[in-house]
């Protein structure tokens, strides 16, 4: 059960220095550096097409400096559970390719202009190319997993993509509409964000059966923590410049999206709740005046501290889920990743 806003008594832990975060990430990467290099090569191969605009549009986004969190998780989980099957490289590459597909589609839906400090592919190539390139990435992902000839991997990926689509539709349907409750919010981020992270964590079902459920739970809890951290970044928490966060503070709010700090603030302030509904009722995008007023009131409330605490609890649950795994350097790294995720600055 997810903690409610009324039972939050712990104090949010301090953020480690940015240099320590970078050093930790570099340490994780070193553990699976050779596999990550192979996954990067595999990703480029999967994006190849004789229709040259497809790799141009997909690569414009995929190779613009993303964190590669999903491939890193897949390969660390493989190492932690003794998966040596070469298909682990395909799963790692597909994790990033599926993520790229969602970003291509999201930027069209949200009318985004910049991603990772660069113009979105839809700005460079147009909405149609961006959508269809996202479709290509989805199809190529399914093809790649099907070629492993492991039906469990194919089924699990198909289930994952279906749930991701449900999450995206649920979020779009709720954008600019009536307030979501916490259960609906949790459902959206589970399907939109956490389910893909969980698929990568189980190494696409190539992990040994006895470890799949712990890894799935790890991935789901990590996905919750990741998305709540992203919600906090939208309010300028942990970073203040678009070049650091990759997004302008208030971007989600202007798009009419209900994020956790906003939900928590509205639960305790009926006037804010009514004003948000009125602002969203006009349809996104919100005006700068309305968005800035709402952001100011959210930041003046306790909702940021509450959201941080909830993110920390999901991070702790993610680390605890790994208890059944045998001791290893990869397991130790995985247990620290949730705290890194909730303390990230971009």
Describe the structure.
The structure is a single chain. With 346 residues, the chain is mainly α. It has one domain: Orthogonal Bundle (Farnesyl Diphosphate Synthase). It has 17 helices and 2 strands. The chain has a two-stranded antiparallel sheet. The longest helix is centred in the middle third of the chain and has 25 residues. The N terminus is likely disordered.
Summarize the structure.
This protein is mainly α and 346 residues long. 70% of the residues lie in helices and 1% in strands.
Q: What is the secondary structure topology, with strand pairs?
A:
Elements: H1 18-31, H2 33-47, H3 53-62, H4 69-80, H5 87-109, E1 114-115, E2 118-119, H6 121-125, H7 127-146, H8 151-174, H9 182-201, H10 209-233, H11 242-245, H12 251-254, H13 260-268, H14 270-281, H15 288-300, H16 303-321, H17 329-342
Antiparallel strand pairs: 1-2
Helix pairs in contact: 1-17, 2-5, 3-7, 4-5, 4-9, 4-17, 5-7, 5-9, 7-8, 8-9, 9-10, 10-16, 10-17, 13-14, 13-15, 13-16, 14-15, 16-17
Secondary-structure arrangement, i.e. CATH architecture: Orthogonal Bundle
Report the mean per-residue pLDDT as an integer. 87
Provide the gyration radius in Å. Answer: 20 Å
Count of helical stretches: 17
| Number of structural domains | 1
């Amino acid at each position: 059960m997810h903690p409610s806003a009324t039972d939050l008594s712990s104090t949010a832990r301090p953020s480690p220095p940015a240099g320590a975060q970078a050093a930790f990430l570099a340490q994780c990467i070193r553990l699976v550096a050779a596999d990550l290099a192979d996954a990067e090569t595999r990703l480029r191969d999967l994006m190849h097409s004789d229709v040259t605009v497809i790799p141009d549009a997909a690569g414009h986004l995929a190779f613009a400096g993303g964190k590669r969190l999903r491939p890193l998780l897949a390969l660390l989980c493989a190492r932690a559970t003794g998966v040596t099957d070469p298909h682990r490289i395909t799963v790692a590459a597909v994790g990033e390719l599926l993520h790229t597909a969602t970003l291509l589609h999201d930027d069209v839906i949200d009318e985004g202009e910049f991603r990772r400090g660069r113009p979105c592919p839809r700005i460079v190539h147009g909405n149609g190319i961006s959508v269809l390139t996202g479709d290509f990435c989805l199809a190529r992902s399914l093809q790649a997993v099907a070629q492993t000839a492991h039906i469990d991997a194919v089924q699990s990926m198909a289930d994952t993509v279906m749930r991701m689509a449900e999450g995206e539709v649920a979020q779009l349907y709720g954008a600019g509409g009536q307030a979501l409750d916490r259960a609906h919010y949790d459902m959206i981020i589970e399907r939109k964000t956490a389910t893909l992270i969980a698929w990568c964590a189980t190494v696409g079902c190539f992990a040994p059966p006895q470890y799949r459920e712990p890894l799935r739970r790890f991935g789901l809890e990590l996905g919750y923590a990741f998305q709540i951290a992203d919600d906090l970044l939208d309010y300028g928490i942990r970073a203040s410049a678009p070049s650091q966060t990759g997004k302008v503070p208030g971007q989600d709010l202007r798009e009419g999206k209900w994020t956790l700090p906003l939900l928590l603030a509205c639960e305790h302030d009926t006037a804010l709740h009514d004003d948000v509904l009125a602002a969203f009722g006009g349809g996104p995008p919100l005006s700068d005046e309305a968005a800035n007023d709402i952001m100011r009131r959210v930041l003046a409330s306790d909702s940021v501290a509450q959201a941080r605490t909830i993110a920390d609890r999901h991070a702790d649950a993610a680390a605890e889920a790994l208890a059944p795994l045998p001791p290893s350097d990869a397991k130790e790294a995985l247990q620290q990743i949730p705290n890194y995720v909730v303390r990230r600055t971009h």
